[in-house]
Amino acid sequence: MATPVFKCIHAADLHLEQVCTGFDQIPIDFLDPLIDAPYLAAESIFTAALNEEVDAVLLTGDVLSSGEYGPRSLMFLVEQTERLAARGISVYWALGGSDPPLRWPSAALFPETVHRLVGKYREVFHPLKNGQQLRLLGPADQKSTVRSSDYPTAADAQISIALGYGTASQQALAKLDYHYWALGGVHLRETFSRNPTMHYAGTPQGRSPAESGPRGCTLVEIDSEGLVQTSPIVTDAVRWNTFSLSLDPDTSQESLYGMIQSQIARGIVDAASRPLLATWNIAGSGSLVRSLQKADAKKKLLEDLNAVDYGGASVWHVAVEAQPAEYPAAWYEEETILGEFLRSLRQLQNEGIDSSDWEKYLPCGNLGAQVAARLKSEQNSDSSLAIKRAADLGVHLLSGEDV
Ligand SMILES: [Mn+2]
């Protein structure tokens, strides 16, 4: 691309007050890094803006949560935007689902370089070095969908950026001729269109095992032709990483530990001296996978892993999940009790389970009712995983091994 006429950092979903979750216990020396992680990650965004000497920072929603923000997050954001203001860097903040509304007394604390875009204040113009102006258009309201009908077509020759929050449809937005769609509300970084570029910057800091892998913000450069180039900047201060292992029926406990150690060694390199929170998804068939589905065995494995000294690296093993593997297709066709059993489970898998009425899947009578009552208290459990586990147990019992 030609020399950029506009250079910015696009970030979203800072969720400054949102703490990390997803662990039963955590060692004391992890507490401070976990509490500070959202702030350190956000600070890296503003530092990157200064280092890259950008023209502006675009924030697309979920920066502060209006229900939860307190003095720390508010003052942090004021300080950071003042760092930018001192260097003449503007902030264009498109208000998303959880941000404080436009009428918000604390907004007066921010320097004048902070523009909160929504509703009748949604449109601003940013002067470019070549004398032209760049048009930025924020969302019409604080809803959680980017609706094409809310954005007028960007018809003139000017470079235009649309800022939005929530789910978006590539087809509907592409017709509107904006050069860049800066979007928020999706926590995993994603460019879902290249022509024009439509991009979710993702959250700068993962908060749970579900937000595994590097997180950050995006450096965006636009040239005078309106060509857009995006590059990721990693900002997370604590790294969540979910590792997947696949076990053979004859994998021993010892070789499982060996597999874990070699994956964690790579994870430590990837985390580049950040504290690492590891989750293990173990899949396969055989007695080891079956035993790891039991709470005691998972707990023992976690204790063993957390007793290992990683030579100065901060590593904490958060959870182990063991899932039975898929069975060979031929087993489903067998005219045997096993085949019949697997076919019934597959039917349940396809139709889904009505978890409000467990009793209809269970034997009549007192025992069925008791089991249904226990299941009811675990409403949030993953029913497809439960079916896979039932399949594994059934296959094990019908195989006749370990009788
Ligand atoms: Mn969010």
Structure description:
By secondary structure, this protein is of the alpha/beta class. The chain has 3 domains: 4-234, 4-Layer Sandwich (Purple Acid Phosphatase, chain A, domain 2); 238-325, no CATH class; 330-403, no CATH class. The chain contains 10 helices and 15 strands. Strands 4-3-2-1-11-12 form a 6-stranded mixed sheet, covered by helices on one side. Strand 13, helix 4 (253-271) and strand 14 (276-284) form a beta-alpha-beta unit. The termini are far apart. The model has no long low-confidence stretch (mean pLDDT 92). The protein binds manganese (II) ion. Manganese (II) ion (MN) binds next to loops. Manganese (II) ion binds next to loops.
